[in-house]
Amino acid sequence: MHFSVIAALLGLLLVLFSVTMLVPVLFAWWYGEPTIHVFLTAFIVTACSGALLWLPNKEIRHALRTRDGFLITTLFWLVLGLFGSLPLLLTDSLSLSVTDAIFESISGLTTTGATVITGLDDLPKSILYYRQQLQWLGGIGIIVIAIAILPMLGVGGMQLYRAETPGPMKDHKLTPRITSTAKALFTIYVLITVACGVSYWLAGMTVFDALSHSFSTVAIGGFSTHDASIGYFDNPIILVIAMGFMLISGVNFALHYFAYHNQSLRVYGQDSEFKFYLLVNVIAIIIVSTALLLLTYPSAHQPVPLLEGAFQVISLSTTTGFIVGDYSQWPTFIPLFMFFLAFIGASAGSTGGGMKAIRILLIIKQGYRELLRLIHPNAVIPIKVGGRPVSNDVVSAVWSFFAFYIFAYLVMVLMMLATGADFLTSFSAVGASINNLGPGLGDVSAHYGELSATAKWTLCLAMLLGRLEVFTVLVLLTPAFWRR
User: Fold this and answer.
1) Contact, 338 vs 317, CB < 8 A?
2) Which residues, 6 or more positions from 333, have their beta carbon under 8 angstroms from its beta carbon?
């Protein structure tokens, strides 16, 4: 294990991260807010800490091994989550504890969107912007790690994705070098963000709200600048725009790259995961709309909220977590059904959470194959995705991931119950955290501020497990990982 190289990389990362803390200073200056010293202090502490790690080790040269990659990938989110909490901890108007500040920071960077903060409408604009910026940075970090880094480690959604769905756009790297790949992904990410922000502004948002919500929409984060979330604007056009960009951001960014590079939309139609991802959302919207029509008993003064229903389906199925109204008060079947959609989640190589659509597609195909084997025991029935067979090793890996995912989920639900939380709150809070969704049910339908400190630390672990594809974190807990 090359700890000196790992320290140098983390130090450099912290120095770069500290620079982003200067952007909210501009907002504090523009709006005349007394938070300039908060961000400057956080910048100095983060930059100095990074320099102390980087400078003594900057000349050391070692080739990174797979084990180094596992550790760096996990520490990437953990260290940034800790230092990212500094501005939130130092802001007097928030009055957050250390636990709450770290929870909010990790929730932002993992694009979960679970919050412990209330009274958002009265907070300084610089703090509101900083929360959104955390999600946006976490979003691009997720994409780069999923597509450019994790495949080299042999783990993660994108490595499985390329193995599970072979095709012309996934049999090779986007570009020959990782640095070029990262630049290409960042360019696509920025372009989609700009398009989203301009669309929001044209639909009636202020420039500040349009910028802030474009960050959390494209990052599939769900943080808002208002307590009422996106429902604050009471604008159907804004809901439609958000639905479109949530769906776009839930697609594998490699597809966006090839569509942009080839100037053609055909790559989407040729991708099995994309078609399954859209099909799930369409079917879910039909089911929820039908349930709303049959169960909500509309009157002349209270029409059936079909647009809100469709919006909420896409928001939860992509694990964005925006809310419009209190959907938890709808007939019980509807919020639970939408909550379970988050376990499917978005596509591999996107900013979304959940188990990823490609894995669920393979599990369904494997289940169907077993049904056919009951009828034809001696038949050889390959699993095909995109017209090409998938190896049994890949299918086995997907089932292993599914088993560990559910096992981790159940263990943390029990941990939450042990803190005194009720079953619905525990069940939904852990599910919303490990799927990087955000809003839950029960006591966490609006915010997570009322939970105990132990419960919040448990949920921080759930967020990191979900964001890092479970195996990346759990492998660090095995004795074999630390043996020479």
Assistant:
1) yes
2) 291, 295
384 DSSP β-pair partners: 389
Residue appearing with tokens 């780069």 = 144
Closest CA to 146 of 102, 185, 199: 185
C-alpha–C-alpha distance, residues 126 and 337, integer Å? 37
Q: Cα–Cα distance between 442 and 244 in angstroms, integer?
A: 29
16 touches 79 (CB < 8 A):
no
As beta bridge partners, residue 390 has 383
Q: Do the beta carbons of residue 162 and residue 170 sit within 8 Å?
A: yes
Asked whether residue 239 is assigned to any structural domain, the reply reads: no
**Which residue type is seen at 452?**
S
- The domain total for the chain is 1
Report yes or no on 48 lying in a domain: yes
CB 358 within 8 A of CB 165: yes
Give the pLDDT confidence score for residue 297 in this predicted structure. Answer: 61
Q: Tokens at residue 311, please?
A: 């919006």
Handedness of CA 268, 271, 274, 279 (dihedral sign): positive
Q: What is the mean pLDDT of residues 317-336?
A: 89
Sequence-separated (6 or more) residues with CB below 8 Å from residue 160: 348, 358, 359, 394, 397, 398, 401
Tell me whether residue 67 is exposed, middle or buried, using C-beta atoms within 10 angstroms of its C-beta: 0 to 12, 13 to 18, 19 or more: middle
- Quote the tokens at residue 212: 């802030």
Nearest of 41, 38, 52, 39 to residue 10 by alpha carbon: 52
Is 2 domain-assigned? yes
Calculate mean pLDDT across residues 22-43: 95
Taken in order 313, 316, 317, 320, the sign of the CA dihedral is positive
CA angle 134, 408, 448 (to 5 degrees): 45
**Domain that residue 46 falls in:** 1-71
Does an H or E element contain 109, and which? helix 98-109
Residue 246 near residue 239, CB atoms below 8 Å: no
pLDDT tens, residue by residue, 391-400: 888 888 888 8
Is position 231 within any domain?
A: no
Token look-up 């938070």 returns: 35
Task: Report the run of H or E that residue 414 belongs to, with start and end.
Answer: helix 392-418
Please classify residue 386 by burial: count the beta carbons closer than 10 Å to its beta carbon, then call 0-12 exposed, 13-18 middle and 19+ buried.
middle
How far apart (Å, rounded) are the C-alpha atoms in residues 330 and 335? 7
More confident: 170 or 369 = 369
Mean pLDDT, residues 73-84 taken together: 89
- How many CB atoms are located within 10 Å of the residue 452 CB? 13
Which residue bears the tokens 């570009």?
A: 175
For the residues 173-200, what does the mean pLDDT come to? 80
φ, ψ dihedrals at 143, nearest 5°? -65, -45
Residue type, 164: E
